[in-house]
Each structure stands twice: as C-alpha cells, then as structure tokens.
Design a protein that fits this description.
By secondary structure, the protein is of the alpha/beta class. 33% of the residues lie in helices and 22% in strands. The chain has an 8-stranded mixed sheet with strand order 1-2-4-3-5-6-7-8, sandwiched between helices. β7, α5 and β8 form a beta-alpha-beta unit. The model has no long low-confidence stretch (mean pLDDT 97).
Length: 251
C-alpha cells in the first residue's frame, strides 16, 4: 500500500481564501492531479479519507471547501453519522449555502483550484481529472465545460439537478466539454429523475462527448458517503472501480 500524506492548504480565489485538503503519495513525486468536489455536507473526515484512497492509487488530490465564502470548514457542524431524516434541520442550514454557489461563482472558483493544481510541485504537468458527489457532480460537469483545456476527465456520482429546464442547467455546457465523462446515477433519485438523465445523455451525445452514464440500481442519493444513512457499500465500491478505470484511461 502506498503511503499517503495529507495536509491543509489555503487557496487564494477572486473572492477570498478557500481552505482545502490535499492528499498525495508520501514520496512527494509529481502525480496526476484530481480535483474532488464535495457533497453538501462539506469538507470533513470522510471526504479526506476518500482523497487519501485516491492518493494511495497514485494521484495528487485536492478537496476544496466550496462554501469558503461562508467560513472555514466545517461551515455547518455535522454529526459523526449524518441522517437527514432524523435531523431535517441539517438541510435547512445547507440549502442557502448550496443555492448561493451560482454557476458564475463556481467557474471563478474552479479557475483558482485548477491554477493551484497547475502550480503545485505535487502535481504532474498536464490536464487534471475531476470527481464530484451530489452537488459536486454539478460542479464537476460545470468545470469540465468552463475549463475544457484543463480537464481531461470528469466524473459525477449521485448528482442532482444536472439537466433541468432552466437557463442555468449544468448540462448546457456539454458543447464545450472535451474531457471523457462518467456519471454514476442513483436509482429512484428525486433530485435527478429519468427525464433529466435522458436530457443529459442527449446533450452529451449531441455534443460528441465521450461519456458513460450508468444507473446504480437500488442505490440512494448519496450512496458513496460512508458517514451518512444513504451509504451503500456495494454501490460505493462500484463507484471506485468506475472512477479508477476512468483515471487509468486518462493518465
């Protein structure tokens, strides 16, 4: 098993300073870069553990606190085990943060995150890969479309609102994507109904984007997050296989 080193870093953006976590193989040699976008529950021990697992596979992984405008992580204190059904007030606190991160702000922030990866001695030269979870899947898709020259692969898992009928829908950037894209959708996910999955598929196909999208049958929205009630070990391990396969094809 490759030894892994994880450290806290600060990233200067146009709007302030984003705190972040970076994980990389312990030898410090430059490795392909991966930008990991959080779910709504934020930068916390579980996401750091996910970054560590990717780093052990040979990547330099950056996990920014995308809610940095509202404070350093944890912006909203989370219980050790997150069950939104038992604690409905959690989403009441998180929803304004999610809604405040507009497409324009997300693109501006992505520029800073990608620049950090480009300048870091821990990261090998060349384009990077993206992976995102829940709201992070939206950020992954948007970043692939707004920074195509910097992104070689983009993945999203149990994302919501990826192909709405609004002018801000993330799927509308499909025509600018040059990366290979993979989506692992949750089954029966109210935040991404079948019509949105089809709309996303149609947009990527029409744009000629190399892509794969799969519906993980029986998996709930949030299935990769081991510190939540939505966790599904079988689906989470399937996600790791798909993600690592994508990265191997890319780098």
């Amino acid at each position: 098993m490759t030894s892994v080193q994880g450290t806290a870093v600060d990233i200067t953006t146009e709007d302030g300073v984003a705190d972040a976590y970076v994980a990389h193989p312990g030898d410090g040699a430059p490795r392909p870069g991966v930008l990991l976008y959080q779910d709504a529950f934020g930068l916390r021990p579980h996401l750091k553990a996910m970054a560590d697992r990717l780093a052990a596979a040979g990547y330099a992984v950056l996990v920014p606190n995308v809610f940095y405008r509202h404070g350093r992580a944890p912006v909203v204190e989370m219980p050790e085990f997150i069950d939104p059904v038992a604690r409905p007030e959690i989403f009441g606190s998180l929803m304004p943060l999610m809604q405040s991160l507009t497409n324009d702000l997300a693109a501006r922030d992505a520029d800073a995150y990608l620049r950090w990866l480009e300048e870091s001695p821990l990261v090998a030269d060349g384009p990077v890969a993206l992976t995102g979870y829940c709201m992070g899947a939206r950020l992954s898709l948007l970043t692939a479309g707004t920074h195509p020259e910097r992104v070689a692969a983009a993945a999203g898992f149990h994302g919501g609102g990826l192909a709405t009928d609004t002018p801000e829908s993330p799927h509308l950037v499909a025509g600018r994507i040059t990366a290979e894209v993979y989506f692992g959708h949750a089954d029966n996910d109210h935040s991404l109904p079948p019509e949105q999955i089809q709309r996303l598929e149609d947009a990527l196909t029409a744009a000629g984007v190399r892509h794969t999208h799969e519906v993980y049958e029986g998996a709930q929205h949030g299935y990769t997050q081991a510190d939540t009630s939505a966790y599904d070990e079988k689906a989470a391990e399937r996600h790791w296989v798909a993600l690592l396969d994508l990265l191997k094809r890319t780098f």
